[in-house]
Write a structure and sequence with these properties.
Blueprint: E1 9-13, E2 18-22, H1 29-32, E3 38-44, E4 48-50, E5 55-60, E6 66-70, E7 76-80, E8 93-95, E9 102-103, E10 108-112, H2 114-119, E11 126-131, E12 136-140, E13 145-146, E14 151-157
Antiparallel strand pairs: 1-14, 2-3, 2-13, 3-11, 4-10, 5-6, 5-9, 6-7, 7-11, 8-10, 12-14
Length: 158
């Protein structure tokens, strides 16, 4: 039998090499309570953060510590490099793309000096959160080491 209405699914790829962390385990209530959106986090091992999804760079924060990408179907994905890193006022971060850029998965967006960030007492755990106007269901593999470009999570639209 044909399925005329398959649920739409979007794959989100890892923006950086590292270890997957459950969002609930991130030591910041905004992320752990999913107030900023649902998703996963990564304890990064590399300094370059790339587009986890194809779309348009909708936001690069003025301090370069976070960015968002919006897809054609309205999915908004934010990568927030570290916790309380806005307090560094851009030190240790460099934008490699700009707002309005069309990007494909793997396009470098921000480089971050993780050693510098840690030396300033800031955790480098990086939440990757998803928002959409419609209900979504996020599924992810087990907690593991992940490489940039590997599947991080799957998003199904209800």
């Amino acid at each position: 039998m044909f399925r005329l209405f398959k649920p739409k699914k979007q794959i989100l790829f890892s923006p950086v090499d590292g270890n997957i962390v459950k969002l609930e385990d991130v030591p910041d209530e905004v992320f752990s309570a999913k107030l900023a959106g649902d998703g996963m986090a990564i304890m990064p091992h590399s300094n370059t953060f790339v587009a986890p999804i194809s779309g348009v760079v909708s936001k690069i924060f003025s301090t370069n510590h976070a960015f968002s990408i919006r897809t054609k179907n309205g999915l908004e994905v934010m990568v927030h490099i570290g916790l309380d890193t806005v307090e560094l006022n851009g030190e240790g971060f460099k934008a490699l793309a700009k707002e309005g850029d069309k990007v494909s998965v793997g396009k470098p967006i921000i480089s971050a000096d993780l050693a510098f960030i840690e030396s300033k007492g800031k955790p480098i755990v990086t939440p990757i959160v998803v928002n959409h106007k419609k209900d979504i269901v996020i599924s992810s593999d087990k907690i593991r080491t992940i490489r940039e470009g590997e599947e991080l999570m799957s998003i199904a639209f209800k």
